[in-house]
């Protein structure tokens, strides 16, 4: 049997989006799909079952054996494992499966173009490139870029999505490859073979920075990440903290400090503490609740025990 890509999709309170996402990637003959419901509080599981019942959906609880031959599998976690924990659990299901050559982490509120998987796999074929990212366009304004790779400002402890809100040139001539440090986790392909040397994602990061840390560890081991300019997905945007803005500042600042402690020297870490504090003051527009949670995340990130 030829090898294939295992597509990994996390669902949390977004059943209809997950169904649309799966429908967009069912077309790939060299891929199979596994969904993890991260303990949704809504009717997501029922919506997914109904929406994918004609596509051979197999539903099982985490820990139960299941057929690896199924085209679409829905695993029920029983608790919210976060982005890193959820994807790690899914990858662990297939690490010993010799037929799986790569994992594609794909946000459930994204849909992919027909050529996307092929374009990413082409980038990681041969050589020392371990990760391939996609051009992420706005779901509603499909000629507007959300992200085409990211640049990390280490002294500030923040990352900037390249080309954000700019018009997309299908030629890719406007992609600033020279400023690109890592690829966005909303659509990220990783070769399975390199995970045996660099490991899975660090679950100390519950949200944000986990994919950057992963790719930084890979870079230390001699592996590259690249943007596949012909790989396009259309993305709505995260719902994890959109309705609770204070949680964005908490998780972002927490993860920023954890990342800085793992990868930056003392002087850079010290700068990022003060400069990220200033960024938080500006971004929250002095909203009391967001400000309190932002500084709580910063403090927790400085004291959290590292893996």
The CATH architecture of the largest domain is: Alpha-Beta Complex
The succession of helices and strands, N to C, reads EHEHEEHEEHEEEEEHHEHHH
Average residue-wise pLDDT: 95
CATH topology of the largest domain, by name, is Spore Coat Polysaccharide Biosynthesis Protein SpsA, Chain A
Helix content range: 25-40%
| Integer-rounded radius of gyration | 19 Å
Structural class: alpha/beta
Number of strands: 12
CATH class of the largest domain: Alpha Beta
Instruction: Indicate the proportion of strand residues.
Output: 15-25%
Total count of helical runs of at least 4 residues: 9
The general outline is globular
Number of domains: 2
Low-confidence stretches: none
Largest sheet: 10 strands, mixed
**Terminal Cα separation, in Å?**
37 Å
Précis, in short:
With 307 residues, this protein is of the alpha/beta class. It has helices at residues 15-25, 44-51, 82-94, 116-124, 195-198, 210-220, 245-263, 266-284, 288-303, and strands at residues 4-11, 31-37, 57-61, 72-76, 100-106, 110-112, 129-138, 145-147, 150-153, 158-161, 187-191, 224-235. Helix 6 runs parallel beside helix 7 and helix 8 runs antiparallel to helix 9.
Describe the structure.
By secondary structure, the chain is an alpha/beta fold. It has 2 domains: 4-235, Spore Coat Polysaccharide Biosynthesis Protein SpsA, Chain A, CATH 3.90.550; 245-303, no CATH class. It has 9 helices and 12 strands. The strands form 2 sheets. Strands 1, 2, 3, 4, 5, 6, 7, 8, 11 and 12 form a 10-stranded mixed β-sheet that branches. Strands 9-10 form a two-stranded antiparallel sheet. Strand 9 (150-153) and strand 10 (158-161) form a beta hairpin. The two termini are 37 Å apart.
């Amino acid at each position: 049997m030829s090898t294939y890509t295992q597509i990994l999709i996390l669902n949390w309170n977004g059943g209809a989006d997950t169904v649309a996402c799966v429908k967009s990637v069912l077309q790939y003959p060299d891929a199979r799909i596994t969904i993890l419901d991260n303990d949704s509080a809504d009717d997501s599981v029922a919506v997914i079952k109904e929406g994918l019942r004609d596509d051979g959906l197999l539903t099982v609880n985490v820990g139960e054996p299941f057929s690896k031959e199924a085209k679409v599998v829905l695993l029920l976690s029983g608790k919210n494992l976060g982005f890193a924990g959820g994807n790690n659990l899914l990858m662990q299901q297939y690490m010993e499966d010799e037929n799986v050559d790569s994992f594609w982490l794909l946000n459930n509120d994204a849909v992919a173009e027909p050529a996307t998987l092929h374009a990413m796999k082409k980038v990681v074929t041969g050589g020392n490139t371990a990760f391939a990212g996609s051009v992420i366009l706005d779901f509603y304004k499909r000629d507007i870029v959300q992200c085409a790779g990211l640049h990390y400002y280490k002294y500030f402890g923040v990352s900037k999505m390249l080309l954000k809100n700019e018009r997309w040139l299908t030629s890719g001539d406007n992609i600033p490859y020279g400023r690109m440090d890592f690829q966005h986790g909303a659509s990220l392909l990783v070769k399975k073979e390199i995970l045996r040397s660099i490991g899975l994602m660090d679950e100390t990061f519950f949200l944000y920075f986990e994919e950057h840390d992963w790719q930084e560890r890979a870079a230390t081991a001699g592996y590259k990440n690249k943007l596949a300019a012909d790989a396009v997905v259309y993305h709505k945007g995260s719902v994890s903290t959109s309705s609770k803005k204070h949680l964005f500042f908490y998780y972002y600042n927490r993860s920023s400090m954890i990342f800085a402690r793992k990868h930056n020297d003392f002087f850079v870490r010290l700068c990022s503490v003060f400069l990220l504090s200033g960024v938080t003051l500006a971004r929250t527009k002095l909203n009391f609740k967001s400000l309190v949670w932002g500084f709580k995340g910063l403090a927790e990130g400085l004291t959290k025990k590292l893996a």
